[in-house]
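Below is how a single chain appears once it has passed through the pipeline. First comes the sequence as given, then the structure the pipeline wrote out for it. We keep one example in the README because the format questions we get most often are answered faster by looking than by reading.
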Amino acid sequence: MFLLGYVGVEVALGGWIVTFMIRVRQGSAFASGMTATGFWLGITVGRVVLGFVTPRVGEKVAISVYIVCSIGFGLVLWLVPQFYASAVAVSLQGFFLGPLFPGAVVIVTKLLPRHLHVTSIGFVAAFGGSGAAILPFAVGVLAQAKGVKVLQPFIIALSGAILITWLGLPRVAKVRRNE
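Resulting structure:
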């Protein structure tokens, strides 16, 4: 369920941010398109940079903090009605969303026996991929009925749900390795 929600957040936000920035923040098509680039660049840079931080802090704590930060920048994007603030906020939202997928994969490998890793990672990735189909569609249905301004409350609520799901995972023992 965590990856279904996460992938849904990632694809819904990445797919709808241009429309949101044009219609709600009155940005030009080019500038609004660049916010999508900033979001995806944020995801990429977040995976690289926070990929070094996450194992030092521990996946459980780090991912919890990243989701809270993502929700915080989602609130900025939603509540600060200024184009440039929104553009920076969505990029930072992407930055903190970036390490969620790899972190979830690491947790799966720590929670399950080695012989189940390939099958279980394949299953959770496939199940998570269904979030890429279902949740952006749900945003579209809501946007058609209420306007694209529903994007951020939807993303924030879904991020809260994935945080609750993440916090409900069993505790993972920290593995000490001699380096």
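The two ends are 35 Å apart (CA to CA).

See the next section for the split statistics.
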